[in-house]
Amino acid sequence: MEQTQKVEKVLLCAPRGFCAGVEMAIKALAWMVKAFEAPVYCYHEIVHNKLVVENFKSQGVVFVDNIAEVPEGKPIMLSAHGSAPEVVAAAKANGSYVVDAVCPLVTKVHHEVKVRSKKGYRIVYVGHAGHEEAVGTMAVAPESIHRVESVEDVAQLPEFEEPTALLAQTTLSHRDWADVADAAKEKYPDIFTPTRSDLCFATTNRQAALMQIANRCDAFVVIGSANSSNTNALAQLARESGCESVYRVNGPEELPTDISGIVGVTAGASAPEHVVQAVIKQLAPQDGVEEVTVTQEDEYFPPPRNLRNLLSGLEAAASLALGQHPSNQPELPDRYLDASSVLVD
Ligand code: SF4
Question: Could you tell me the pTM of the whole model?
Fold first, then answer.
């Protein structure tokens, strides 16, 4: 669809799009697709992006919301958002090859929940109701966790006799987190908080880049799916920064035709870069694109250990079949592989 008004310029946020956790999860699922006969099953959307999920469906991946839907013995991948301990156990009991693509930064929060709950803490957890990451984290110690989302939720919590800890979903809007955290610290002055908040680097970097340009923009386009928490946090932040026209879109086909002036563009952590480029092409800015970089991200999360072992074993077997010595095999080329490149056209 053609733009009816002129976009003057695009201010493009950096960092944007795929984070290290999403890169790892997408590549891990792609490795699973290569290693096993179809179908590979994936518990929950591998990442919260409609286009990525559709792409994997076209590669023969079946997404399920219940492990009971997976036929016995079939390979299962667990999503990047982290799964409840009983889901992990059910997947393993299914007799399948199970790879958990949980982001290590979500695992860190699970670990903290486990440790604090064992020590008898009451945990005030800031997270969105029903979000898969929050559901999985709360399931680690349901009897110890109290989920809150607002200052009012904190006010309604009882006084606890036990020590308290404050933990959070990794993808919250910084402002949502800060207000609720302040309220919790006021209510429980001795509350334990990790040295760095649980909001992950990818979330905070993308929000910082947006804040850097929001006041220069007439409109803002945030690329990502409706169920992506960090995408919604970006859109919310753009609105709170005074930008009146904020559009969350899956891709260029959802852009409004009357967008004009200086347009900010960013993408949530699970949105592919080729979609960003397609959006810019559709916006067709007359004065071009100015990329505004607040920091470089060079984090890399390797594939889950059992997947690495499996792939190395397959590589070694393939070398033997070719008459090569397995030790001559190069390291798994995962690090230098771009997750966008494993999504088929
Ligand atoms: S947004 Fe943060 S927590 Fe989520 S996958 Fe990316 S790095 Fe991990």
Answer: 0.93
256 and 282, same domain (yes or no):
yes
Cβ–ligand 1 contact at 280 (below 6 Å): no
Does ligand 1 come within 6 angstroms of the Cβ of 19?
yes
Q: Report which protein residue has its CA nearest ligand 1's atom 7.
A: 21
For residue 86, pLDDT over 90 is answered with: yes
What does the pLDDT look like over 310-322, one tens digit per residue?
888 777 766 666 6
Atom from ligand 1 closest to the CA of residue 21: 5
pLDDT-derived band at 3, boundaries 50, 70, 90? low
The CATH number given to whatever domain includes residue 92 is 3.40.50.11270
Quick check: CB of 13 below 6 Å from ligand 1? Answer: no
Which numbered atom of ligand 1 lies nearest the CA of 106? 3
298 in a structural domain: no
Residues 209 and 287 in one domain: yes
Verify whether ligand 1 is closer than 6 Å to residue 134 (CB atom).
no
Task: Give the range of the structural domain holding residue 211, as residue numbers without chain letter.
Answer: 7-19+201-293
- 105 C-beta closer than 6 A to ligand 1: yes
Residue 111 has pLDDT above 70, yes or no: yes
Measured between alpha carbons, how far is 267 from 261 in angstroms, rounded to an integer? 19
Residues 322, 263 share a domain: no
Q: What is the overall mean pLDDT for the chain?
A: 93
Q: Which of 136, 155, 187 is the last residue of a domain?
A: 187
Ligand 1 atom nearest to 170, measured from its CA: 3
Distance 202 CA to ligand 1 centre (A): 6
Both structure tokens of 30: 């792609």
Boundary of a domain, candidates 163, 187, 211 = 187
**Predicted confidence (pLDDT) at residue 325 exceeds the cutoff of 90:** no
Number of domains in the chain: 3
Mark 261-293 as b/e (b = at least 16 C-beta within 10 Å): ebbbbbbbbbbbeebbebbbebbebeeeeeeee
Annotated active-site positions, please? 133
Q: Are residues 279 and 311 in the same domain?
A: no
d(CA 170, CA 10): 29
